[in-house]
Amino acid sequence: MPKIIILPNEEHCPDGAVLEAQSGETILDVALRNGIEIEHACEKSCACTTCHVVVREGFDSLNESDELEDDMLDKAWGLEPESRLSCQARVADDDLVVDIPRYTVNLASEAH
Length: 112
What we know:
By secondary structure, the protein is an alpha+beta fold. It is built from three helices and five strands, in the order ββαβαββα. The chain has a five-stranded mixed sheet. The protein starts with a strand and ends with a helix.
């Protein structure tokens, strides 16, 4: 069973965490199920960047991002080559090491 290792982050997971995942689950769903409240303003519809994460290890095992996700990621704060939207990145069989950025851009709430 693959694991998702969340790196320590003051706001979301101060001590870090090791989470059990099922192949095919999204990083976001695994985090939420384990009480790690990654923001997801668009309710997992790939319409914002609030669930942006950086996959430090295991990136190549994830499903490939599609054009819509890539377009959204272009708007993410702190974009890196290993950035993904956690609502779209599906766990495969490899363990992942995930960094949750300290800041996100909430286009959904800022539009009001």
